[in-house]
Structure formats: C-alpha cells, structure tokens
Amino acid sequence: MIESIKKIVLLNPKLHAGEKEGESKFVFLNSVFLFAGIVAFAMGFVRWQTSALLGMVDIGFSLICFGLLYYLHRHKEKIELVSNLAITCCFLLFLVIYLFAPYNPTRISLFFLLLASAFFLKGRKTGLFWLAVILTSIVAGHFQPYLNTGYSHIDILTTSLYLIALLFIFNNYEIFKETQGARNREQEILRLSEERWRLALEGAGDAVWDWNMQSNDLQYSRRFLDMLGYVDNEFENNYEKLLAVINPQDLSAQQANLTAYLQGESDQFIAEYRVLCKDESWKWILCRGMVTHRDAEGRPIRMAGTHTDISEKKKTDELIWTQANYDTLTQLPNRRLFRDRLDHEIRKAQRDRNFIALLFIDLDRFKEVNDTLGHQMGDQLLIEAARRTQHCVRDSDTVARLGGDEFTVILPELKDFSDIERISRNILDTLAHQFQLGDEHVYISASIGITVFPEDASDIDDLIKNADQALYAAKREGRNRYHYFTSVMQDVAQMRMRLVSDMRQALTAKEFMVYYQPIVDLATGNIHKAEALLRWKHHKHGFISPQTFIPIAEDTGFINDLGDMVFMEATRQVKRWQEIHAADFQISINKSPVQFRFDDQEHNHWLEQLQTLGLKGKSIVVEITEGLLLHADSRITDKLLSFRDTGIQVAIDDFGTGYSSLAYLKKFDIDYLKIDQSFIQNLTPDSPDFALCEAIVVMAHKLGLKVIAEGVETEQQRDILRQIGCDYAQGYLYSKPVPAEEFEALLPA
Asked: pTM for the complete prediction?
C-alpha cells in the first residue's frame, strides 16, 4: 500500500512537464555555448593573423560563451537568467557586427539565429519582443547617414519580410506546440488519474476493468484474475468471455442495468451477478463502472470500472434473511414469511378468481411427549412431523411452523374442495404413523382447522382467526380429525371471548358456587361422601355448563384460581359435616392436569389449609384422570406422592375411558376407581357393560381399591352394582348436585 502511495505522489504531470522543459533548455544552451565558444575561439585565432582587433573580439566572445557554460553547469536553477544574458549579449554582438562590418554580407543572417533562439528559449511572447527589437535595429541602422551597412533598401526589405515570415512560422509552431502540449498534458493527466484510481482501488481490494466498446477488448487487473482463480493469459480479454462466465440467471439483469445506464436512465452502471470461477465454483461480483470516453457524436466508446468480490456479504445477507424468515429447527417458513406468502396468495387469488384453503395443524398431546421424553426428543418429533407434512402437499403449497407444535399449510389455486379433504386426510394419516425417537416408539395424532378464502374471510387476520377456531373445534370433538370453519364457530368464539372477560369478575362477584352430590355406601345406603362440583351462575346468561367454562379456564390458566376456591370451600364444608354428621366424612374434588403442571404454590397452599383447619388428609379425595398417570412427569409424581404422605386419598375419575396401567395404580397408591357413567347408562344383567363393570370391581378389589359408580339413575342399576360388589354409587337416583344447605337436608338427623 505504501508503494502504491509513493507511485501516486510521484505521478505529477506538472512536475514532469517542468523538468522536461528545463532539461531541453539546458541541453540547447549547453550545445550553443560549447559550439559557439569553440568556433569563436578558432575564428579569433585565424583573424588574429590579419586583424588583432577582430581576433580579440572573437576570442572575447569565446570566453563569454565558456563563462556562461561554466556558470550554467554550476547553477542549473539559473537557466532563465543565463538564457536572458545569452540572448542579450548575442543581440548586442550581432548588432555591432551588422553596423560596423559591412564587408561581411552574411552577417545579417545572425539575427535569424537569434530570433529562433529567443522563440525556443523564452517562448512566443518574448520572441515577438525580440523580433520587434531586431527589425527596429536593422531598419534604424540602415538609414543612419553616417553608417554604411553595405545593404540596399531591397536587402533590408527582404530581410524584414524573411524575419516576419519566420515570425509566423515560429508563432504557428508555438501555437501548435501549445495545443499539442495541452492535449498531451490532458491525456497524461487522464492517464495518471486513471493510474491513481487503479492503484487506489486495487489497494482497497477491488479489481479494475477497462472496456474498449469499439473493439470489444476488455482489460482486467491482476486482482480480477485472482478472484476467479486464473493466471495470466488463461482468461480472454474480451467482453464476450465475461458474458460467457456470468450465471445465466443473472445475465438478463446485468444487461438491463447496462442498457439503462447507457441510455441515461441511471448515473452509474451497477450490477450484481455470479461468475463461474476456474474451479467451477460461483462467486458473487459487484460490478460498477462509467463511461470514460465518447466519440465526436457523444456515443460511448470506452468504459472503466471495478469488480468487487461480495460472496461473503451475500452469504451473510442470506443467513440473516433465512434466520428472519425460517424456523431454525424445522427449516420451514416462520410466522413472518407465512404471513407474507399468505398475503401474496390472497392478492393472486383475487386477480385470478381462485380460492385458497388455510389449514391450522396442532399435534395432539405433543406436550406430554416433550415433558416425558425431553425437549431433544420433542425437537426430533417436530422435525419429522414437518417433513411428513411437506410430503403431503404440492410444491406450490406452503408449510410453515408458527411456533411450538403448531403448523400451518397454505393451499393456493384450488379448483375443487375435495382436494382440501384429501390433503387433510393424508396429513392426519401420515402423522398417526409411528415416530421413532431414539429407542422410543411414539404415536401421536393431529387436529386440523380449515378455513377457505374468500368464502369465510377476505383478509389475513380473519382467515387466521377462523382457522384457529376450526382447530379448536376439531380438538373439542375428540382430536385426530379436521374441521371446517363455520359461521356458528364465530358466534361460539365471540361467546368464548366474553366468558374469558367475565370469568375473573365472576369470581370476585361470587358468581361461582360449589355444589355437592352425595356418594352413597351401597351396602348400607348411607351418605359417606360427597363430590364437590363447580357451578357458574352468570349475571346475564344464568347457569353456564361446566363443559363450557372449564375448558376455557384450563386454556387461560384461570383453573388454578377456581380450583383453589373449590378446595377452600370444600375443606370448610367437610369440617362442618364431620362435626354434625360423621367424623370420617369425605369430600372429593376434581383437580385438572393443568393444576398439576403449572401451580406448585397452590399445592403447598392446600396442605397448609388442612393444617389450619385441623383436618386429616383423608378428609379430602382428589380425583384425577387416567391420562395424567400415563404421562406423569416428576412434578406430577412428586405431588401425588406428597398427597399420599399427608393422607389425602386419590381417585381415578372416568375409569375405563382412557389408557391406564395397573403398575401406575400401585405406584401412586390409588384409593378409588370411579366407573364412568357411560358404562352405567345401559347397565342390565345381560348387557356387555355388566361384564365390564364386574371385571373392574373384581380387579379393583384384588388391588385393594374401592369402586365408585357414577351416573346411577335407576334402582335396577343400583341393585346390579350392589350385586357385583361395587362399594359406592352416585347419581340422580340419590340426588343431583345441590348447594351445601340442600345437601345437609339429605343427611340423617
């Protein structure tokens, strides 16, 4: 880089021009003084034989020449002074010879030499001055009455005309020389400027190119060849060769940018394109350039510019764009790119009058797999689920991951609604196949919500909202299915939003109440237990079904507050009923899986409440579902074992409707099995449910568990259950769920 700077500093056209001009004058004066000194000395020696005076003059002139020559060599910087002295001395000498040596007819020609020297040494203006002096001296000397120059009037006139002609010759020559010199200086300045530019750019790492547009010759700097891996003479210096190595996908844009620049539509030619290197790899090149020469008619005939290797920048830009638009785990489009593509497809569908299907996919029970096997296995499942989903759609479709276990599919340009169902069914089927996660074999399912543009909505946000509502409906109906959005869903969704908003106010306003349903000992007919059931009496809509508000509370996390409220009420109530009815009276409360997973503080609070009221742990029975045991993680296990340690009993609710393991029943010291009411509804002596119920009772007793039958509504059902040895029953045969005051009326006095 330092060498490049030195070169730039040394490339000074004015300095070089001054040095060349001074050198020329020095050589000229050196030659004149030396030649004139030698000749004058020789002539002086010869003339000394005939005339001592003339010999002395010649020798004196010789000495002056040698003296000036010596001074010039000692003081080169005084060249202008020496040239002025030389011209002046020569003029005086030539004038003396002209006036006082009439016998020499050629003496007047000396003035021609003087004039030529003046023009050469001092330039056009000084030459004109000396021409005027010489003409004046010649004419004035000729017409002096006391002098005889030996020349006729015709000779003087002819000489004057010759001198004037010589003036025109020298003047035109000087004008030509100045014009040519100016042009040469301009070219030199341009060349040196380009050289500085080239050196500066190459010092900064850019390659330089120079294109002769007439011959199509394209010159490159060494840096460009290094970029592409070529050595000298391996890459042809013509424009066609460059076009041949540009990526065909980029060539049209490069040509369009060049045309736009040459037509004056842009101030500078700029293009980015990939170039094929010698090793068959591709490099991204930023090409910039501009016209440096035009012909007389203004047409461009030469361009120059730079090539910059931007491959690393392109890689960085691509990485940033990918990270901003693609999910890092599955490599699917993320939410941002999904919205961009959906917006694009909507615009295209509006133009072409096509319709679009939007699918929202949620992996059923993915969280249980993630919590049980760990996040690494969960990530593998997500990657495989993404791959399978992509194989179910067309290349023109978009599969995106919105986050967690939520995926979405955009199906554009659909001609038939049957395509939606076919693709949805394929997705469900392929996701239902076994997943191999390390040494584990895992089965999951998926739920799909479907909405259609423009039938259901015409903008992105509404489509997303509709698909989400349809997905929720698919999960509510049992999962592993797809569900289309309907206008009824919109009403349900709006109702759901209002309930979410009203729920917290309802707790403060005491709209939530605890009802109790008796659990009867089948052997004695006595009420030994009760199940606490939550009810909501809305200030506008009246009683809201638990099947409606409990799922909402679980989704929003509000179930923790409701569960805590039910527990506090139940513990206060069981204490009272133990005091007025039976010391071993129990109340069962339902505990949602959500409460087990997300609220450690609530669990500790419950244990503190029992201690505060002085209640034994067995006063409370916690009812859980079978699925909770099947997918129990350390948090759930610790809480269940903590219940056992404090004496709180545990019942499996809705037994027989899910998946359970006998090992889990023993591991967690389960106390009760509650037979789901679906087995009781059609219970008769010859029904299949009879055998199932009897088998459950026998199995439970063998394991040391007691059995409670739910949904008992007839005496026949009660008698059959008593016959097979069932321990307890609850249902409308005894009482529907009632407030605490009404429940007390059911207890014996």
From this structure: 0.48
Q: Taking residues 504-510, report their average pLDDT.
A: 88
Distance CA 396, CA 389 (A): 14
Token pair of 510, please? 């005491």
The fold of 517-532+562-745 is TIM Barrel (3.20.20)
Of 30-34, 216-220, 233-237, which range is least confident?
30-34
Residue 371 has a pLDDT of 82
Hey, what long-range contacts does 274-280 have (CB within 8 A, 24 or more apart)?
274/246, 274/247, 274/249, 274/250, 275/227, 275/228, 275/245, 275/246, 275/247, 276/228, 276/245, 276/246, 276/247, 277/227, 277/228, 277/229, 278/228, 278/229, 278/230, 278/234, 279/229
Distance CA 747, CA 580 (A): 9
Give the three-class secondary structure for 1.
Answer: coil
Q: What is the residue extent of each domain of the chain?
A: 2-179, 205-316, 329-485, 517-532+562-745
- Give the type of residue at 708: I
The CATH architecture that domain 205-316 belongs to is 2-Layer Sandwich (3.30)
Q: Which residue has the higher pLDDT, 12 or 738?
A: 738
Q: Provide the phi-psi class of 233: left if phi over 0, else alpha when psi is between -120 and 50, else beta.
A: left
Least confident of 80-84, 123-127, 411-415, 424-428: 123-127
**Contact between residue 623 and residue 531 where contact means Cβ atoms under 8 Å apart:** yes
CA-based nearest residue to 509, from 455, 463, 565, 557: 565
Residue predicted with more confidence, 34 or 696: 696
pLDDT digits (tens, 9 = 90+) for 155-195: 667 767 766 766 666 666 667 667 776 777 777 766 655 56
Q: Pick one of 3.40.50.2300, 3.30.70.270, 3.10.20.880, 2.30.110.20 as the CATH number of 329-485.
A: 3.30.70.270
Q: Give backbone dihedrals phi and psi of 274, rounded to 5 degrees, phi first.
A: -95, 140
Q: Are 715 and 733 in contact (CB under 8 A)?
A: yes
Residue partners of 475: CB distance under 8 A and separation at least 6: 362, 364, 447
Calculate mean pLDDT across residues 702-725.
Answer: 93
- Return the HEC string of 346-396: HHHHHHHCCEEEEEEEEEECHHHHHHHHCHHHHHHHHHHHHHHHHHCCCCC
Torsion angle (degrees, nearest 10) of CA 278, 281, 286, 288: 20
pLDDT of residue 356: 92
Which residues partner with 622 through β-bridges?
589, 650
CB atoms within 10 A of CB 228: 21
DSSP state of 238: B
Residue 341, pLDDT > 90, answer yes
Q: Is the pLDDT of residue 8 over 50?
A: no
Cα gap 55→66, rounded to integer Å: 16
The 3-state DSSP class for residue 32 equals helix
Dihedral class, residue 481 (left if φ above 0, else alpha if ψ from -120 to 50, else beta)? beta
Q: How far apart are CA 207 and CA 308, in angstroms?
A: 6
Residue range 722-746, pLDDT digits in tens: 999 999 999 999 999 999 999 999 9
The two domains 205-316 and 517-532+562-745 share their CATH topology (first three levels equal): no
CA 234 – CA 285 distance, rounded (Å): 19
Share of the chain above pLDDT 70, in %: 80
